[in-house]
Structures are given as structure tokens and as C-alpha cells.
Amino acid sequence: MKPLLFRISGYDKSQQQDSDVDRRGSCVRSLMLQLYHFHVNAVAMADKPSANWLLLIHQIPPKPDYLRVKIWRRMQRVGAVAVKNSVYVLPKNEETLEDFQWVLGEIMAGGGDGSICEAGFVEGLSDSNIETIFRSARDADYSAIAEEARELGLALPALGRKLEPEQRSRLEADVTRLRRRLSEVVKIDFFDSLGRQSAEGLVATLEARLHPDTSTGSNAAPLNSEYRRRVWVTRKGIHVDRMASAWLIKRFIDPDGKFKFVPARGYQPEKDEIRFDMFEAEFTHEGDLCTFEVLLQRLKLEDTALRPIAEIVHDIDLKDGKFGRSETPGIERLITGICTVHKDDEARLARALALFDDLHGSFARRSR
After folding, report:
1. Closest by alpha carbon to 117, among 209, 19, 43, 25?
2. CA 258, 262, 267: angle at the middle one, nearest 5?
3. At 205, is the secondary structure helix, strand, or coil?
4. How much is the pLDDT for 208?
5. Is 324 helix (H, G, I), strand (E, B) or coil?
6. Residues 6+ away with beta carbon under 8 Å from 84
7. How many whole angstroms from its chain centre is CA 173?
8. What number is the average pLDDT over the span 304-310?
């Protein structure tokens, strides 16, 4: 296995006695050299990597048994992922440093050793590799939440039927717990995983069904004239749902509209901007519908050739195989190719417009 090569600087635990620091420091250095064979380069390099990460390197004693499980749970709670055995990583900021310091305190209180380092990776794993590990971990969390939300949705009665008080109380408690769990995952979703949109939509739909009076009319779309000549805002790094939704907007809703690609976190919309497929957007996932399907439904777009496109986009985006159209694998490969070759969102959009134009033309001819 190719070793990881990174540059580190440590955080001093100066409050401890010198002898204790020397003993622990020696143990950690030995652990790094003997177990992981990490090459630490203290000499300035021409292409010095930026220290974007925090590492917590630890050694936990075999006894007591519960300590290892306890620390693993703590790592899960703060959102850390493992890059090697007993080496955990978080993106570097003040909050994540504090999280690691708390975990390290628990490790040392239990008789273990550890060190927190700033790190920039040089060989082996790259920053993008680590970001992918984070996204995969959070996608798994969102998938579990989405699955539970679907199961709770099956327990809700059909529209027009009332819940019994006891059943309502139980479901409200379950949905509140699920919302709290979702909020916890969002807090540690450092790189905006794709699964968030689906989980958010499913939980929001459960809340709306439990409290219909407070949500009546909230999803009603304004008149189509209000969508003309607007700026449509979505997250950077567009993929199938945002590509297809942008095509739909450009071809059927707002031909003169402009698109703006922004970071997923912390963006405040300006006047005349409409957000789509992002957190708190005007158009985003609702329940088990992707953004493309939501646009079709709320704007009442009745072109028959749009329905099979919606089914293809749904299955690629949500990965649930709901429709299983034969065209889906081929379109997914094309989307993957576009995203692999083109990193710029404007370039991706240009390719997507041509792709979905041709796909729409194919389905339109079939429906004649």
C-alpha cells in the first residue's frame, strides 16, 4: 500500500508536566513511525501543500473495553472520518479543533495517548479523495434518514383521513426525532453531500402532512410571468438534477433567464434571484421528488416528452430505481462523462443543454 505523505504541525498540551509530555510525545512518535510509516517532511518544499486538515492520531489501551467504542462514537458525532487505523481527519477550523481537543481529552483520561496535527497531504490521498470520503459517510447518514422517513410516511393515513390522537402523538415524536437527527448530520456535512436534498425533502413532507393547516398553499407557485428574466441560483458543481432543471428553466420557463452558481452554504439571495436544488430554495426536493419533478409539478408543465426525462433524472439523482427506464444507464454515463471532463459549471451546463435538447426531441417524436 502506498504510504501517505503529509506535512504536519502539532498542538502543544503545555498544561501537562514536562515528563508526561515527553513520555506521551515519544509514544506518539513511535506509533507514527512503527504503525503507519508516515513520512513527515520538516524541510521546506517547492510545492508546499496548504494545511487544510486536522488529524487526531491516537493509541487506546486494550482495557477497558468500552473506551474504544466510546471514542468511535465520539468521532462519528463530530463527523470525523478515518484515513488509517486510529488516524482521524476533520477539515481545519476553530470548531473542529475544539471537537478534536475534547475527544483527545477523553482518550488521555482513559489512559491512552494522542496528538492533534495540522496536515497537508502530499502523496497518497489528495484533498479531493478525502472530501469524497466525507461525502460518502454523510450520504450514508442521509440515506438512512430518508429510508426511515419513507417508512414513517407509510404509517400516515391517506389524504382526507384524520389521525387518532395517540397515533398523531407517536408520529410527531418520531418526526421530531428524525428532524433533530437530520440537523445533526447537516452540521457535520462539511462538503455538501448530494443525499441531503432528498432527506430534507422527505422530512419536510412528513412535517407538512402532520400539520397541513400550517403548510396549506406554501407550495403554490406564482404566475409564470413572475419567472421571466430572473437570475436562477443553484449550487456549484452541478450534476444531473441541476443540469436537467437548468435545461427545463431555459427551454420552458425563462428563456432569457441567467444562471448563477454559488457555494452551497451561507448564500443569501439577492433581489430577482430564484434558487433551485439547494437548501431553502424556492424549488428543491419535496418528499420523494427531485427538483426537476418539483418544477414540472408546481409549474404544471404538461409537455408529454418531459415525463420520461423526469423519470430518468429521478432514478439517476435519487438512485432508488423507481422507474427503471432502459435509457437511464446510458444517460447516467453521459452525465458522468460531462462532469469528469468539464469542471466548470458553465461548460457543464452548455453540454447538458445539448444533451437534454436531443433527449427531449427523441421522446417528442415517439409521442406523435
Report:
1. 25
2. 110
3. helix
4. 80
5. coil
6. 4, 36
7. 25
8. 95
Map residue 53 onto helix, strand or coil: strand
Averaged over 202-216, what is the pLDDT? 71
Close Cβ partners of 269 (under 8 Å, ≥ 6 residues apart): 233, 275
3-class DSSP state for residue 51? coil
Residue 140: in which H helix or E strand, if any? helix 127-155
pTM to 2 decimals?
0.61
User: Residue 257: what residue type?
Assistant: G
Place of cell 404538461: 302
**Helices and strands (H and E) in the chain: how many:** 12, 9
| 235 C-beta neighbours (distance < 10 Å), count | 23
Q: DSSP code of 33?
A: I
Contact 56, 112 (CB under 8 A): no
Are the C-beta atoms of residues 89 and 55 closer than 8 Å to each other?
yes
Which domains does the chain possess? Answer: 5-125 (3.30.70.240), 130-215 (no CATH), 224-366 (no CATH)
Residue 55: predicted pLDDT: 96
Comparing CA positions, the residue from 163, 126, 345 lying closest to residue 243 is: 345
Rounded Cα distance between 208 and 249, Å, is 26
Backbone angles phi, psi at 283, to 5 degrees: -130, 115
Position 130: which residue type? I
